[in-house]
Design goal:
This protein is α/β, with parallel strands linked by helices. The protein has 2 helices and 8 strands.
Length: about 140
């Protein structure tokens, strides 16, 4: 019997139009995802109109953006999710996304919702900025009663 840890999701790769990854596009993407989520651009992996990689808080977790001719197109409901440890952390991200939207209307937000599933309460919101997929931010409160 193996004692190895199960495989873990470590990245997502999305293809965008090449012009979306020009100098201005990369700066906009880096600023938003840095301000709202604390993700960092990895400059060593950046290539004009070809590639932008955002580190998602730790080495080996990243969003890999590729410039290409065939790009991803997705309905508004398509997304990937991140989980946070506290509702306060979620609310802080939502507030930062809302503040960014004041200065850049390209930010799309589906506002905070709370779903009570008896044993678990899910608090979440969705946001998209210049990527084909939304990001769902989630917090789970587990009930012990």
């Amino acid at each position: 019997m193996s004692t190895a840890a199960p495989p873990r999701l470590n990245h997502i790769a999305l293809t965008l139009p090449r012009q979306a990854l020009d100098e201005r596009g990369r700066a906009d993407i880096g600023e938003f995802y840095g301000d709202v989520f604390g993700w960092d651009v990895i400059p060593e992996l950046t290539k004009d109109r070809e590639r932008l990689v955002l580190r998602v808080h730790r080495r080996g977790h990243f969003v890999y953006l590729i410039g290409g001719d065939e790009t991803l197109s997705a309905p508004r409901s398509d997304h990937f999710g991140i989980e946070v440890d506290t509702v306060d952390e979620l609310d802080g991200m939502l507030a930062r996304a809302q503040a960014f939207r004041v200065r850049d209307p390209r930010v799309e937000i589906i506002d905070r919702e709370v779903e009570d599933h008896q044993r678990v309460v899910l608090t979440s919101f969705y946001v998209r900025y210049l990527l084909p997929l939304m990001v769902e931010v989630q917090h789970y409160t587990r009930r012990t009663d």
